[in-house]
Amino acid sequence: MRTLPEPIAVRELKSDVKPIWCAGCGDYGVLNAVLKALSDLRTDPASVVIASGIGCSGRFPAFVSTYGFHGVHGRVLPLATGIKLANPELTVLAVGGDGDAFSIGAGHLPHAARRNVDITYIVMDNEIYGLTKGQPSPTSPLGMKRKASPYGTTDEPINSVAMVLCYGASFVARGFSSRPRELAEIVKRGLQHEGFSYIEVISPCVTFHDTYGLYKELTTPLPESHDPSDRTAAVMLALETGVKHLGVFYEDARSSHHAQIERLREKSGGEFSLEDVMARFYR
Amino acid sequence: MPKNDIVIRIGGESGEGIVTIGEVFVRIAAFSGLEVYTFRTFPAEILGGHVIFQARIADRPVLSQGDEIEVLVSLNQEGYDNHIGELNAGGVVIYDSNRVQPAGGGDDHVLCPIPVSDLARGMGFTRGANLVMIGAMIQLLGLPLGKADQVVTRRLGHHEDLLSRNLEALGLGHSYARQQVTQRLPAYLEPPTEGAGQRLVMTGNQALALGAIAAGCRFFAGYPITPATDLMEFLAKELPRVNGALVQAEDEIAAINMIIGASFAGAPAMTATSGPGLALMIEALGLSSMAEIPIVVVDVQRAGPSTGMPTKTAQGDLYLSFYAGNDEPPRFVIAPSSVEDCFYQMINAFNMAESYQMPVIVLSDQALAPRVETCPPFALDQVRLWKRQMAEPGAGNSFERYSVTRTGVSPMTTPGTGGGQYIAEGLEHDEKGNPDDSPQMHETMTEKRWRKVDSARHDVFSLDNAVEEWGDRDAAIGIIGWGSSLGPVKEAIVRAQAAGYRVAALFPKILFPMPDVRISRFIKGRRVIIIPELNMLGQLGRVVEHRYTHQIVRNAVDIISLNKYQGLPFRPVEIFDEIVQVTQALTRRAKMAPAQKVGQPSLRY
Ligand SMILES: Cc1ncc(C[n+]2csc(CCOP(=O)(O)OP(=O)(O)O)c2C)c(N)n1
Ligand code: SF4
Q1: How many angstroms away from the CA of A21 is the closest CA of chain B?
Q2: Chain segment A184-195, per-residue pLDDT in tens
């Protein structure tokens, strides 16, 4: 991570673009937490890239004065993977919604996790499609009625923390946009973790699925006794019903994707010359 | 008299060493100073299924797989039965006499029985049968044993005991053939004793991969698909050596988004796929156009639609490459025409992508990708790279990533550069990259993005490898084609000219933007334009009709599509016959009804 001698104020980390989110949207809390984390870590904004897919949450990069990439729906993880590999010195965040992450882009999650791409992936989970105005998402509660599901949904919601733990991610956490200070701490740990950091953030959509009340009730910090190097215990906690634990479920220190690729380079060995490669094909 | 231009076919079940025999034999021929050009089919299954390995070998550059088969090599009965019908009258059959019983005594053909299985068994090395056969083949067809020894040593040098056994097997087949087959065969080769210059023996995919590295490619992401996979495998070995990286992605959508990310972060990047994969990449191709991030996408075309025929060739993805995508995403399309051209067009592809910040599609095909050709070494010292135009940002957040310029190209920055922060944006945006969907901004930015295509026209059509044009300049008949059918067309024209016909030809290598000036001029002087394509609808033909209606109508030119859709490349004779027929029709028309069309109207669907 490239740092500055003096921290940049959160104010200066904001871009001059005003967020287009509805007043009260959980995504504001996430934005503030990320800004605080970047400021606290004295990150050089010119060395940060925030990549996103499509959704209300996907607008995130425009509001920060770092580099950014607003790509297509559901493809933020491969986009961020390419960015990180091309220049491992960059600090890369991937952000987006639950539809982006678990529906259209769901096929990329296990692979980013198993590759251990050194990026921090923040999913703003509002259990709804916000941008397209309120259709059920893969995390919507069973039976939810909306225009696209007038008789209630029939599909079980995904438990993303349990899922990503089982994908073998090396850092898995959950935060809540209403607790920006704790969230900022989690984001900081995620940014400092060298490997794939998955952070699910409960980020309610006031307009189409207001869950503030519900999650004030249901959220609770992980038990202090929880050992974040114990994946099985982490999965058990993630699967607990009637409660949503907040905090870092799991962390390990296995080698990151770019570190492994660096090792391949050493293995591939030898001086390279185009002439030599071509010479292999001389008759 | 040697016939220094022969076509050899080896056919049989896959897994029988057909490809090994073919590849080693071809290398021996090339090493002996001859030119080679292979054509092979692949079995649909991994093991089993029928394969053909065919090689044309000559003492002058070979442009196509040829029309007829002069030598058939059969390792088993099936390999004989399935192919004997296609062997020329008077052609040579070299076969394992322990396993093949020539039908009807083989009256029409010259039979060369070699007890390959027995010979190999006799030396206690049944696995050496392939080498016994190669030994016999080189003796019968006139290639020197010394060169064969060297080729086999190069292949197996690191396995010492295996090498000596194989050389022994090679010698055994050679001496058996010398003693037992004393007659002169009607088809044999005579390699040049000296003066054969340095040549490469390479496949189309290898040339594309080498071209990519030479062009500065440092990142590749791809998903395996026939016939593009070995391009990825080549780069998997070489890219880490140049500090590059390669990811085998989870699918093609991931692959293209990865290369867009990598390119945004500063690494020239590419992917390679075939039609089904390109179909999946279309949305992100639009992102590359919109966010103005350079990428190169190789499409090794295969017959379709859908999964189609993975191991059979086609030129069916021209429409897909030109037009696929929501609304109108500007991009470039390039179609190399030979193994050698693959290298140079890859340089053009990266140069165009990088300097215009756009996606470039390179259209190869299943016939070109795996085939081995001899060609001159690439002029590495003449490779000129066109770099991205970089901005030198000032302080503050005022960098205009998408500045509206005269050429359409906006200087960019790479993440990490202080003061150059911007959002690469897939939404319509203003000069700073902020979303803006106002009518004026969309109009301005749409024009800015497309203006790059016009600017490119100026740069790329001054390259001498952007278009290939040859033949009789004022001929009434012209051929316009694209991609790997150039070889067969060239050969057909040589033959046609030798027979007194007059033809001109034009192949744009850079297909989009189209070389409008060259094509307009080419159409103008003609009566008929033949457009041969390996597809049913005549995709380039339709584009030409649409784009040059004015020239076609005003000069009363007939456009005739010559379409082949069997999964196989053109044979020169097919083009030659068309030239003859069209010439005859033109002569008839001149005598009788001047308004009569010379061919079927080409647009059927
Ligand atoms: C390929 C494609 N399909 C559909 C859409 C339409 N679309 C845009 S955002 C979105 C879902 C947004 O939901 P989510 O990812 O949860 O983000 P949120 O808006 O809730 O933050 C959809 C379906 C699109 N932009 N692209
Ligand atoms: S619609 Fe929902 S998710 Fe979108 S900005 Fe408004 S509150 Fe946030």
Answers
A1: 14
A2: 999 999 999 999
CA distance B319 to B297: 15
Q: What is the span of the domain harbouring residue A91?
A: 10-254
Q: To test ligand 2's pocket by mutation, which of A27, A131, A132, A203 has the most ligand atoms within 8 angstroms of CB?
A: A27
Dump pLDDT digits (tens) for B376-389.
Answer: 999 999 999 999 99
Any idea how long chain B is?
605
The enclosing domain of A196 has a CATH number of 3.40.50.970
Q: Which ligand is nearest to the CA of A96?
A: 1
Q: What distances in angstroms separate CA B490 from CA A134, A231, B251, B338, one per listed residue?
A: 61, 65, 39, 12
Cis amide leading into B305 (omega within 30)? yes
Residues of chain A neighbouring B435 (CB-CB closer than 8 A): 59, 62
Q: Does residue A46 belong to any structural domain of this protein?
A: yes
Dump the DSSP string for B176-223: HHHHH--SPPSS-----SS-----EEEEHHHHHHHHHHHTT--EEEE-
Q: Evaluate whether residue A183 is within a structural domain.
A: yes
CA A81 to chain centre: 12
Strand B423-425 relative to strand A67-70, pairing? parallel
B54: three-class secondary structure by DSSP? strand
Q: Is the pLDDT of residue B422 over 80?
A: yes
Q: What tens digit of pLDDT does each residue of B214-256 get?
A: 999 999 999 999 999 999 999 999 999 999 999 999 999 999 9
Find the ligand nearest to A26 CA: 2
Q: Quick check: A46 and B418 CB within 8 A?
A: yes
The answer to whether position A280 is within a domain reads no
Check: CB of residue A69 under 8 Å from CB of residue A48: no
Which residues have any ligand 1 atom within 6 Å of their CB? A 54-57, 73, 96-100, 124, 126, 128-132, 137
pLDDT grade, residue B1 (50/70/90)?
A: very low
- B496: helix, coil or strand? helix
What ligand is nearest to the CA atom of residue A22? 2
Rg (CA), chain B: 27
Domain assignment of residue A278, yes or no: no
Contacts of B422 in chain A (CB under 8 A): 67-68
Q: Tell me: ipTM over 0.95.
A: yes
Quick: pLDDT tens for A56-103: 999 999 999 999 999 999 999 999 999 999 999 999 999 999 999 999
Closest of B401, B511, B404, B386 to residue B450, by C-alpha: B404
- Which domains are seen in chain B, by residue range? 5-180 (3.40.920.10), 203-376 (3.40.50.970), 389-465 (no CATH), 468-592 (3.40.50.920)
- What is the pTM for the complete model shown? 0.96
Tokens of B236: 């998997």
Strand partners, A43: A3
**DSSP, res B385:** P
Under 8 Å between Cβ of A50 and B416 = no
| Residue ranges in chain A modelled with pLDDT below 70 | none
Structure tokens at B107: 């009256």
Label the pairing between strands B50-58 and B5-13.
Answer: antiparallel
Q: Are A38 and A48 in contact (CB under 8 A)?
A: yes
- How close is the Cα of A274 to the center of ligand 2, in Å? 53
CA-only gyration radius of chain A, Å: 20
Q: At what angle do helices B339-356 and B439-460 cross, to 10 degrees?
A: 140
Question: Is-cis flag, bond preceding B513, omega within 30?
Answer: yes
Overall number of domains in chain A: 1
- Output the six-digit token pair for B25: 């034999």
Under 8 Å between Cβ of B121 and B112: no
What is the pLDDT at residue A103?
Answer: 98
**Among B242, B262, B415, beta carbon nearest to A67:** B415
Centroid of ligand 1 to alpha carbon of A34 (angstroms): 22
What is the residue with the minimal CA distance to atom 20 of ligand 1?
Answer: A130
